[in-house]
Amino acid sequence: MATTTIDGGKALTGLRRRITLGYEAFQTSARREPVKYLTMLVGVVVLAALVCYPVYLLFQFSLYNADGKFTFANYIAVFSEPGLLSAMKNSLILAFFVPLICLLVGLPAAWLVSRTDMPMKGMVRAFAGVAFIVPSFISVIAWIFLMAPNSGKINKLLMALFGLDAPPINIFSMGGLIFVESMHFYPLVFFAVTAALDNIDPSFEDAARNLGAGRVRTAVTVTLPLVAPAILSGLILCILDALAAFGAPAALGFPVNIHVLTTKIYTLLTYPPQLQLAAAVSIPIIFFTALCLLCQRWWLGRTKFTTLTGKIGKAQAVELGRWRWVAFGFCFVVIFFSVLLPLSALIILSLLNTFGADIAFKNMVLSNYKIFFDDTFIVWQSVQNSLKLAFATATLCVLLSIVYVWIVERTKIPGRSLVTFIIMITFGFPAVAMGVGILIGYINILYGTLLIIFVAYMAKMIPFAFIFMRNAAKQIGEELEEAARIAGATWMRSVRDVTVPLMKTGIWVGWVLIFSLCLRELAMSVFLAQPGTEVMAVAVYIYLEEGSVENAAAISVVIALLSVATVMIARKIAGKGTLEVS
Amino acid sequence: MADLPHKLELQNLVKMFGEVRAVDGVSLQIASGESVVLLGPSGCGKTTTLRSVAGFIKPDGGEILLDGKKIADGASSLPPEKRRLGMVFQNYAVWPHKSVFQNVAYGLVIAKLSRDEIAQRVRRALELVKMPGLEDRMPGELSGGQQQRVALARAIVTEPSMLLLDEPLSNLDAGLREEMRFELKELQERIGMTTLYVTHDQEEALVLADRIVVMNKGKIEQVDVPREVYLHPASRFVATFVGVTNLLDATVDAVDAKAGRVRAASALGAPFWASSRKDKLQTLNKGDRIAVSVRPEAIFVNGSAPSLNPKFRARVQKSAFLGNRIDLRLDLKGQEFRCQVPKFDHAPALSHEVDVEFDSELAWVV
Fold first, then answer.
1. Which residue of A15, A407, A429, A522 has the fewest CB atoms within a 10 Å radius of its CB?
2. More confident residue, A306 or A317
3. Listed residue (A260, A241, A242, A240) closest to A250, CA to CA
4. How many Å apart are CA A463 and CA B209, to the nearest integer?
5. How confident is the model at residue A180, as a pLDDT?
6. pLDDT of the residue at B38
7. What torsion, rounded to 10 degrees, do the Cα atoms A91, A94, A97, A103 define?
8. Are B250 and B286 in contact (CB under 8 A)?
9. Nearest to B57 by CA among B100, B32, B23
10. How far, CA to CA in Å, does A110 sit from each of A114, A197, A215, A256, A374?
11. What is the spatial distance between Cα A437 and Cα A452, in angstroms, rounded to a whole number?
């Protein structure tokens, strides 16, 4: 508790007393309820091993060179070596343009869907969801198929139509990368804004209309400022995700030697591995992430109004008149480029017998899917690995999160906000950096095992489980658990009989979502996987690298289907609202 | 005869939240079968005290003894599940995912009673709270009042050594609240259960309590039967918190120890007689400053009853018709006084002057 006191000495003795009292009380409680405190202790130790240790190592390694001497040389290299400098420049370009396009696409779409009478709104929402669920390293395969400079189908089409000499579009470029990423991340802005707009108190706008403001003026001067915090949240998530992305930049950048920070880290880890430099390259991403999160916290702390006042009545939809179908046209273009085109291209590609073949039924075969069942390919093994890892990660994340949520929400242990902080760090940590940290930390004991990937997944996914569990727990009044205690139940029993059943929905939704996220994780898996421990996403990557694009497409289709299926299940369990971004 | 221990004893209980002494040296003894109400404004420490007895809060100082055995002090605290208490929470805390039967049976299941015994006791408890036959309903289908009865049944079915209730009626609507007050009191007397209530509603306290404990800022101001707390408040706070009163600053003019009264001189003019406790009288001397609490019903308007006190002239400032009486605000030498006139046809008109007297037995030195 921070007290602004002029007498710093008095505040300090107060703090010391509180810590002493807290510790003594803790000791006596621990003696009385050993199971509870042991469980919490184990949880905290696991958290430290998963998060604190790798993060610490990351910082430590960045400050030493290969001989073990303390040095700043790594950081100097990051900011001076041309390859690294250009990678940083490209990352910043991504971090600027991707959110910009997401805003230009997502904001109008959100307003149209939430506040107007545009037709087919449900369809637009659903497809925006699909655009987000299908990972960008998968849609990038489709885009390569469509817009590669020489073999891309769209290029060929355009060249034939307009009699061009050179292919007009080259997907292997920064522009291409920005395009692909934007199509994948615009739902972040879309869902954040629709969530805010759906819950806006209609009387704010009614008051403006009553005083003479027209539709557009009301939208710009009243509605827009009210949803500004939501827009900012969505934008920040776009920035962070654009910075942390690995799959699309790798697929589009490696062939033409365009690097961003994440792909640079990857190359630094290929033989011979330069761990120290890789660690040093990760640090700027981390700091930039922290900066963005702090900005968001500061901004959200400033806004002193709430728009959620409990539904008094749904706001009246703005009538677009003859603009209805124009509006829908805009949304349709977005859906077309973000979902319809890439997904259908992907499916077609997975059915083609060879990459360069023309699209014709005579060339369509199911043989590519045979790789799932053929032992000589890595795919079957990778599917098993993915399923095992996803299952174990989801289950353990959920169980551990119950403990963490208990510590944070139901005890008065000093330092529990530190637990929240540590968990949320990994939320903002780029996956690549996390992968490097875990690699450094556990490579000696867990080299080449599924376990090291498991550790990485756990570290990255715990915040998701934590957020879901926490929201669920917040809705359970403490009195419900206290009533069980008074009736004679021990702490463990009251958690089992009251807390867990009431959190069931949160638990299931969290489990399913983490399961789905694990199935398509690429950025960490690609560092940590060895022959035999690949996961499905890594299999896609390997096939892409060696040129078997159809095989890559086949696996991608399966991943995409699994992702959509799991999210649909989650929605069913939770009712609507699962896809909303807060 | 052997000295039976008190059902509950608090010895100098202390609880701090940060630098604030939420419970500041509270000592209390509750006898078996007694119904005690902790009454006070929010922040006075009554809920903290109750939750300390329940075991959800660990004291920083003092001791809590249940049936003569120490269950908590500054160093250790018996966990709630081992105290064998029953508790009704302010929001009832009826588990929404369990049926009425499962809710009420929970404590018995933990105590590992047989299925038949559990079914029998649950049925009896539900009958006691006037909710027979609703075993299979889910809480979501019940009204607030019904949920509260389920919570009550759940608390008493385990036959706890003591029952704790945290503002049990505050979430009910006004009519139901009045009805439930009497039902609770009747139930408590019937089963002879020692109970500790917490409430901020003084009318509720007056109905429910065998003894009222008035608390303020972590300390106890007065412990007594309801009649005494109302008629003979021990301090300014108790006088103003329990019921409505007019507080008058005065100085002691004369002491009549035999009749138990003092003559008080005030800014109103002629001195008047007011009553006091014998032990307080002994400490009073001529010239001491005192406060006198004069309740509205202790003021006679326009000679409505004879008294030993002189009449004062007052001007009627406000008048409100409340059905069975008229509330008056009078201006007595610049100070506002509240009083009431029971009969409609005696109501004085606004801005008119009236004669006012104090009943010397009801005017009380605090």
1. A15
2. A317
3. A260
4. 50
5. 93
6. 96
7. -120
8. no
9. B23
10. 6, 8, 16, 36, 45
11. 11
B87 CB-side CA count, 13 A: 29
Asked whether the beta carbons of residue B93 and residue A489 sit closer than 8 angstroms, the reply is no
Of residues B79, B111, B151, nearest to A33 (C-beta): B79
Contact check, Cβ <8 Å, A490/B55? no
Contact A482 B56 (CB under 8 A): yes
Q: CA of B75 to nearest chain A CA: how many angstroms apart?
A: 7
Does position A163 have pLDDT exceeding 90, yes or no?
no
The interface pTM score, or ipTM, of the predicted complex is: 0.73
**Angle at which helices A82-115 and A228-244 pack, to 10 degrees?**
140
Across the interface, whether the CB atoms of B86 and A486 are under 8 A apart is answered yes
Q: Of A151, A104, A4, whose CA–CA distance to A547 is shortest?
A: A151
- Which member of A477, A488, A501 has the closest CB to residue B93? A477
Q: Which residues of B touch A482 (CB under 8 A)?
A: 54, 56, 80, 87, 89, 93
Of A477, A480, A489, the CB nearest to B110: A489
More confidently predicted of A444 and A304:
A444
Helix (H) or strand (E) holding A428: helix A416-428
**In one letter, which amino acid is A177?**
L
Structure-token match 């400079």, residue found: A149
Greater confidence (A43 vs B309) lies with A43
Q: Given CB atoms, is B59 within the 8 Å cutoff of chain A?
A: no
* B111 has a chain A CB within 8 A of its CB: yes
B301 touches chain A (CB under 8 A): no
Per-10-residue mean pLDDT, chain B, length 366: 79 92 94 95 93 91 94 89 89 87 91 94 94 90 91 93 92 86 91 94 92 96 95 93 91 88 87 87 88 89 72 88 87 88 76 86 88
From A38's Cα to the closest Cα of chain B, the distance in A is 17
CA atoms of B62 and B49, how far apart (whole Å):
12
Q: Quick check: B107 contacting A, CB < 8 Å?
A: yes
- Dist CA B237 CA B217 (whole Å): 11
Helices A228-244 + A174-198 axis angle, to 10: 150
Token code pair at residue A444 = 């000696």
Contact (CB, 8 A) for B357 and B300: yes
Candidates A486, A491, A492, A497: best to mutate against B (most CBs of B within 10 A) is: A486
* Nearest CA among B122, B56, B85, B126 for reference residue A481: B56
Interatomic CA distance for residues A54 and A57, integer angstroms: 5
Considering only alpha carbons, which residue of chain B is nearest residue A494?
B81
pLDDT band at A307 (very low <50, low <70, confident <90, very high): very low
Whether A24 has a pLDDT exceeding 70, the answer reads no
Residue B153 has a pLDDT of: 94
Residue (of A379, A391, A393) closest to A558 by Cα position: A379
At residue B232, what are phi and psi to the nearest 5 degrees? -125, 70
pTM given for the model: 0.69
Closest CA to A203 of A190, A218, A220: A218
Residue A2: what pLDDT?
Answer: 38
CB A195 within 8 A of CB A206: no
Residue B18 to chain A, least CA–CA distance (Å) = 8
Residues 6+ apart with CB under 8 A from A518: A386, A389, A390, A393, A394, A457, A461
pLDDT digits (tens, 9 = 90+) for B151-187: 999 999 999 999 999 998 888 888 888 888 999 999 9
DSSP letters of B52-84? Answer: HHHTSS--SEEEEEETTEEEEESS-B--GGGS-
Q: Does B293 touch chain A (CB under 8 A)?
A: no
